[in-house]
Structures are given as C-alpha cells and as structure tokens.
Amino acid sequence: MTVTQAIIFSKEFYDTARARRWLSRHHYVPIKRVHETTRYLRYRIREVDERYEYRIKPFTEGVKAVIGFLPYQLYD
Asked: Is 17 exposed, middle or buried, given 0-12, 13-18 or 19+ CB atoms closer than 10 A?
C-alpha cells in the first residue's frame, strides 16, 4: 500500500496560487500551510508515519510527490 505524504512544487514553474489550484484540481487537501524554501513549495498532505519508507517521485514538470510505502517485512 502506498500513500502520498506531500506534494512539492518547483518555484521555477509554480507560485502559491497556481500550486493551490493544482492541488484542488487533483483532490489533494493540505493539512498545513505551505513550507517554502528558496526553490520549492511543499504542501503536506498527511503526517509522517514511521511505519512507512518515503521516496520522491516526479509527477509532471515542476511537481513531485513524496510517496510512502510499507516495507516488505511488514506485509508478513
């Protein structure tokens, strides 16, 4: 099972208004305000769960997702 923990937008392609429209169109509801760095806007979708391992996967140009998955040994 996988979960989306956060969505990350590159500031090169997105500002906060455009990022929030993207989130709304794709049915993501942030649980916190935006975390802004010099290059990225990060919207947390769910809290970090220690049972999951996380990887960053590209969605589209300028958009990445932090995806959590359960390690194999937890399936047994």
From this structure: exposed
C-alpha 22/C-alpha 9 separation (Å) is: 10
Neighbour count for residue 49 (Cβ, 10 Å): 11
Say what the pTM is.
0.89
Number of domains in the chain: 1
Q: What would the pLDDT profile of 47-64 be if each residue is shown by its tens digit? A: 998 889 999 999 999 999
CB count in 10 Å sphere of residue 13: 13
Domain of 57 in residue numbering reads as 2-75
